[in-house]
Design brief:
Mean pLDDT: 80
Number of strands: 0
Order of helices and strands: H
Distance between the termini: 69 Å
Largest sheet: none
Shape: rod-shaped
């Protein structure tokens, strides 16, 4: 009688709980993977944005410096103010 009860009632319930736990584990794993992917995407976006900002700032300073050299070569005064300093990233 004991083995019949185990076969018909207890084992199917155990299997059901196992399958349910696996699905929940998969859902949690997918959610964690999505969160990690979002974090990586945000980090990459920030890095690219910072690199572009630094490049633009560098280009402005190069152009300003070149104009000052050109004015000096022509013997003309150069009173154009320099571009604003680049933004320092927050730590």
């Amino acid at each position: 009688m004991y083995s019949l009860g185990m076969s018909l009632i207890v084992r199917p319930i155990i299997r059901w709980h196992e399958r349910r736990g696996e699905r929940r584990g998969e859902e949690r794993g997918e959610k964690r993977g999505e969160e990690r992917g979002e974090e990586r995407g945000e980090r990459r976006g920030e890095e690219r944005g910072e690199a572009r900002g630094q490049m633009r700032s560098h280009q402005k300073w190069q152009a300003w410096y070149q104009r000052s050299l050109d004015a000096a070569a022509r013997g003309e005064p150069f009173d154009e103010p320099p571009p604003p300093p680049p933004h320092q990233p927050e730590d």
